[in-house]
Amino acid sequence: MCLNPRRKLLAMLIFPVVIGAVARPANADDASTNRTAELRRTLLAQPGMREQLLAIYKGQAATSVRLEWLIRTGIICHLLAEEDAKTIFAAGKQELDYAASLLADEDKVPAQIYLEGVRAGAFRSAEVVSELNDEACRHFGRPGGPLTKIMTWTGKRQYTAQGTLASPRTIP
Predict the structure, then answer these.
(1) What is the pTM of this model?
(2) How confident is the model at residue 21 (pLDDT cuts 50, 70, 90)?
(3) What secondary structure does DSSP assign to 92-128, as a single string?
């Protein structure tokens, strides 16, 4: 498979972070897996819930891809440490995986295709270098800005521009 130069650059920047985060074992034990399976059965037994679970997954897919995009920006701007990038990616993946675990079996393949489409659209829609100049990086790192929002996914306390404590896992 031959990657175009833009995707190759993204792969060089993002994949080392992604591979490190994905290689970690999941924190799910048998009891939580059983609880998730029981919740899934209960939810899917309710009329109309299948469509709602798919909509929830799609929202989580968009958030996950947005996190990936912002991680990429933080790395390119040299504002995000590799360890924080791994933690943010793992947290986003954990939430996406949980949403996927609740889907009906027949919705899992279309959901994965949807995720890949969102990811492809997000990373093909803008030039990597042209939109990231010094001003864009300053904007990204400003107090209460996108960097602060994704850092809430690390579990570390973050503060808004007004000095108030930011909510954990703020949606970017």
Answers:
(1) 0.73
(2) very low
(3) HHHHHHHHHHTS-HHHHHHHHHHHHHHHHHHHHSS-T
